[in-house]
Amino acid sequence: MASFLYRLGSTAYRRSWPFLAFWLILLLAVGGLAGAFAQKPSSTFTIPGLDSVVTMEKMQEIFPAAEDPTNAPTGNIAIKAPDGATLTDPAVNAEVNEMLAEVRDTGLLSNPETIVDPVMASEGLQAQMVPEMEAQGMPPEKIAADVATVSPLSRDETTGIVSVRFDEPSTMDVPADDIATVTDILDRYNEGDLTVMYNGNTFGATSGEINMTSEIIGLGVAALVLIITFGSVVAAGMPLISAIIGVGIGFLGIQLTTAVSDDISDMTPVLATMIGLAVGIDYALFIVSRFRTELIKATGANDLEPKDLAERLRNMDKETRAHAMGMAVGTAGSAVIFAGLTVLIALAALSIINIPFLTAMALGAAATVALAVLIALTFLPALVGLLGTRVFAARVPGVKAPDPEDDHPTMGLRWVRRVRQRPVAHLLVGVILLGLLAIPAANMRLAMPTDGTATPGTPPRIAHEITADAFGPGRDAPMIALLDLADVDPQERPMVMGAGVEKFIATDGVVNAQVVGTTDTLDAAQILITPEFGATNPRTSETLEDLRATDVGVPFGITGATAIFDDISDRLREVLLPYVGIVLALAFLVLLLVFRSIWVPLIAALGFGLSVAATFGITVAIFQEGWLGIIGDPQPLLSFLPIMLIGLVFGLAMDYQVFLVTRMREGWSHGKTAGNATSNGFKHGARVVTAAALIMISVFAAFMAQDMVFIKTMGFALAVAVALDAFVVRMMIIPATMFLLDERAWWIPRWLDRILPKVDVEGEGLSDVRAA
């Protein structure tokens, strides 16, 4: 493989334009297709096979008018009267009707005749429901409770809810301009005495718009780190340009995929951009750094500052420079491939869980990582070749950027010598520190995103709070029980339904339960269950569990957005450990091939476990528990954050393991003692790994500027995970363990060594090429 990569790198350097043209044409082609065919990403989440999803599908068969509550193009308008007034006051009521008339006149909503003010709707509801329930012999208190539970007007008549439905098949199909047309009307009336807010599937989808601030901040910090690393503005720009090309193709490709798949969520391109920028810059950084080292070797000097290197480069022939690039791609490029492979394994393994939206997110990010690898191996050498002798031009005054290959002690060498002197102490400090940071993770709570977890101050969040204050927290968390009465005697079906309602009401945490729909033959019934608490409250999950355990005498299932989201959270918790096992097993095999050692892959995986546990602890403490007051709105972590975080962080952690430990392996295989090989390899790899980690941290941390709660939390968690893994695990625990194991670190059974294929990661097979 090293020989092939050598030829690829040197050829790309010599013949730049074909390689550059290929990627640029691909970028333009994908961009054009995406602009023509891309659709709006989905903002819904579901998993086939869940009890709640199966119940929903069955209910839609029996009751064709029933819609998927997670994808229906519906929304709610929450209206609150001015202080000291009610919605029944003539002036207030007139203003509400004026607003709703404008909403109806847009022509964008289905059944506009049903869009009436809450006072009129409440009166009509009572006129319809009360006589029917009185005829059934219901007691007055039950009638009052049932009416209040579904009434669009609060008991104190200060708050009302108007439900609307856009005239489209699903939320995804509603054009953003149509939503804006309606919300502009509502925003205008909100500026007056009325409080007018909106939430629900369609309106809630507008609260998490993606902006480019994060990418700009991340690229800015990355540029600064690269300038310090290379001492040259031009050289610093190489990784940035190649990463932007890769992310651009990946982002546009994901947008294009929306034309053929409904599983692409609005978070998929953001995650792909986040991981693509980080690894794209890092992989290019490793190759450019090695190219610089090869150029210095070609000059015959051991220590060249950027100014000296730029001057000597002008006198170096193209063939020598092409050889240096070939050596860089043949050595560092091999490590890039295996580092990228571990990321791909961790991401692609998420598809095994069979969660469509999670699979789409993982595969989108994996495709972007694969592009980053390919571009680092082909586009980057071609771009450097195009610049020729100017690649290290535009020197930055005052930045020396020493090369770790020279004979001077570097900061990395001084640090690893300290670790070598007291390996036990450094190992214990690292393990204890990460263990303490992991303690808050024991209280981790998971929930799916709802209007109640939207960004504070946004219309969906305010509408949710208005509704909860006026109608109770459970109003936005309804559940539907579908009773199967087919095997019940037709004469007894009403009594069985009544008994079921009473048992549901008697369940702890239930405010009310009532029949809201039956078939003509009464062989099936829908029972609306209103919980006492909100959708993300753990008490609601307990209530759902108790409801499902209730014996009502007939088979039944419970569905609704609350039940579906709760089931998704449970499924993600169930698959977390199996997923971790699959990833660890596959990655262990890859690292076994790379390092030909049992202990090195094992301690790499154990170190990852410590860093990710500590990351969960810090994230729970700050985002869920509100420690330090950094987050003003603590919420449960999103259900798929842990599994996505593990997938992303594991791949990145193995990146650092590969780039750092391969140099140790190279020294040991060339005859150095295990201890000296560890020190020397750390010296060579620490500087570039430090730069790579700082770039990843800055890119991920910048995504905290996004409004989407999941992206904000994921950006923070990834930044913390990279910091802990790079600087505590890879640069303290790993070398300490390697020193303690000494020669045993590279032990592998002979029979296993014989059957494993030979993988030349550090380009040992290029020794003849180098000599020539």
From TrEMBL:
<feature type="domain" description="SSD">
    <location>
        <begin position="251"/>
        <end position="386"/>
    </location>
</feature>
<feature type="transmembrane region" description="Helical">
    <location>
        <begin position="216"/>
        <end position="236"/>
    </location>
</feature>
<dbReference type="InterPro" id="IPR050545">
    <property type="entry name" value="Mycobact_MmpL"/>
</dbReference>
<keyword id="KW-0472">Membrane</keyword>
<comment type="similarity">
    <text>Belongs to the resistance-nodulation-cell division (RND) (TC 2.A.6) family. MmpL subfamily.</text>
</comment>
<feature type="transmembrane region" description="Helical">
    <location>
        <begin position="716"/>
        <end position="741"/>
    </location>
</feature>
<feature type="transmembrane region" description="Helical">
    <location>
        <begin position="685"/>
        <end position="704"/>
    </location>
</feature>
<keyword id="KW-0812">Transmembrane</keyword>
<feature type="transmembrane region" description="Helical">
    <location>
        <begin position="576"/>
        <end position="595"/>
    </location>
</feature>
<keyword id="KW-1003">Cell membrane</keyword>
<feature type="transmembrane region" description="Helical">
    <location>
        <begin position="322"/>
        <end position="355"/>
    </location>
</feature>
<dbReference type="InterPro" id="IPR000731">
    <property type="entry name" value="SSD"/>
</dbReference>
<keyword id="KW-1133">Transmembrane helix</keyword>
<dbReference type="InterPro" id="IPR004869">
    <property type="entry name" value="MMPL_dom"/>
</dbReference>
<protein>
    <submittedName>
        <fullName>Putative drug exporter of the RND superfamily</fullName>
    </submittedName>
</protein>
<dbReference type="GO" id="GO:0005886">
    <property type="term" value="C:plasma membrane"/>
</dbReference>
<feature type="transmembrane region" description="Helical">
    <location>
        <begin position="267"/>
        <end position="288"/>
    </location>
</feature>
<dbReference type="Pfam" id="PF03176">
    <property type="entry name" value="MMPL"/>
</dbReference>
<feature type="transmembrane region" description="Helical">
    <location>
        <begin position="424"/>
        <end position="442"/>
    </location>
</feature>
<feature type="transmembrane region" description="Helical">
    <location>
        <begin position="361"/>
        <end position="387"/>
    </location>
</feature>
<feature type="transmembrane region" description="Helical">
    <location>
        <begin position="643"/>
        <end position="664"/>
    </location>
</feature>
<feature type="transmembrane region" description="Helical">
    <location>
        <begin position="602"/>
        <end position="623"/>
    </location>
</feature>
